[in-house]
Amino acid sequence: MDVPSATSAAEAGAARPRLRMAAMGPQRQPAPASAAQGRARYFNSANAFNIRLPAVPAQSFSAEAQRALAAGTPTGYIACDQSDALGCEGPATTPLMLARYARIAAGDSLPMRFPSSGTICFVIAGSGASDIADIGDVATGESIAWSAGDVIFFPGGPAATHRAASEDAVLWLVSDEPLMAFDGLRAAPSPSAAAVHYPAVEIRRQLALLYDAVPEATTSGRALIFSSDALEHTHNIHPLLTLSLNTLPPGDSQSAHRHNSAAITLIVDGDDCHSMVDGQAGPWQRWNTMVTPPGAAHSHHNGGNRRALFLIVQDGGLHYRARTMGFQSLPSAS
Fold this sequence. Notes:
Layout lengths: L5 H10 L19 H4 L20 E3 L1 H7 L6 E5 L2 H4 L11 E7 L4 E4 L5 E8 L1 E6 L10 E5 L3 E5 L4 E5 L4 E7 L1 H5 L14 E3 L1 H13 L10 E3 L16 E7 L4 E6 L4 E7 L3 E5 L2 E4 L5 E4 L5 E5 L5 E7 L1 H7 L5 E2 L5
Antiparallel strand pairs: 1-18, 2-3, 3-10, 4-9, 5-8, 5-10, 6-7, 6-9, 8-11, 12-13, 13-20, 14-19, 14-21, 15-18, 15-20, 16-17, 16-19
């Protein structure tokens, strides 16, 4: 291939105005010899990384929670959707996660087949059961009976049907659907995938164990982290998502910090509590869904007279795997 000499390049530059590198736009081969060559595009070091994506808004989904909890709301899903602000093509709470409420009227059923690799579920109210379909060629026939306060992990791939018992039920669900929608990713059913059930009574027992133990000086508060036999080596509930039930004693605060994972928080219990996110105070309201943007400085504060509980899902598994969590303690904010 002939390479233009320095002289010919200079002459060409004198013959036409020279563009700034950042203004060149995508380049293509003038006369491609094949369709594959014609699909090639070229950027440069000045314009390849100047894509401006919308910031993740700090948000509190109050109207969605109230709809889910209101008597008379019909059976169905209520998404915590800020895809317009994020520039996502499908529903999204953060760029990689989608939170939604499910209300199931007494005696009704609600099918679930999300295009995700896994779904985390917390039972806000009511009782019932979830029937899980076969996984690939493996017949499971599994049915999980649940009640208020339970946590359930549903693997991606198989469908499930949620059934409410004799009273209305409300569920809170978080999946990685926005991540899987990126470039049309799909979760392949795996025979080793299985649902995991964490009953409320056992969760309370585990919290009691935490409060009986001597705290670590380097640990921020007491939080229960959910995992499974299949993922015990990762300490997480899902390869991409992490789940923790955080606590704050009366009058206590969780110190300011930041991390590269986004966080979706369900306010489970607390009186006179608030969060500080990048200097802005966000009062808590029970069962609201709150979003902490990635990289945002934040802290949590309990000004009430009882222990606060808040359930947090993060896209932390990705960052742990990539070694990019970037957790950093910060000066305290109140």
